[in-house]
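**Paired protein data**
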Amino acid sequence: MGSLAKLTIYIESAGSKLKFGDSFEALFNPDKLVFSKTANWKKQGAAQRDCPELQFTNAEPRTLKLDLIFDTFDPENVQNKDKDVRQMYTDKIFHLTTIEKHGDKHRPPVCRLSWGTVGYFFQGVLQQLEQQFTLFTEEGVPVRAKLSCTFKEWWTNYEDLNKQAPESSDIAKMHIVKRGDTLSNIAAEEYLDPKLWRVIAIENGIDNPHLLKPGTLLLLPALTDKSQLS
């Protein structure tokens, strides 16, 4: 009979590309995974309505909450300082919230969570961490801890845009400026009308439409009423 699969956290490696190298396993698997997702809807400004129509604006990243238990208590050798639960386990998770130890990233790392045959099921950053130390040696060395972790979903703009289905002009979308792009061309492609470039310029605070820098991320607002936007 094989060993019990352990939840594993893979840590983003240093460098410009998103790669994952170091990892560590949970000592005990969590008893539950709690996923949350929020979608933002804006109420339309319609008069004399009991229930105005709602327009979808955007969504918040998913969050994943889980608790991890770590225990190094050894009744035969409770004074061994090497059994400090921080040094052996919890500091590794604490450093997922710090810039320290992550090279040239200058930010905490992105993580991937994987579990057994399910494989990698969540990619995100550790947004919030609460550490509870609940057992100590006579010398005050912590040997048992409960870590409450909240991860927030994280994707590059490129990955997120590739997951969309941007066929309709009545929903807000994002556009990454490419070399040779103009607001007129973007408006023609998105709204089928190059004259609607002003909509994009106003939404993104662009004063000079001729100075578009490749790589800039533009918000293309939902086109709900051409007569008002033209």
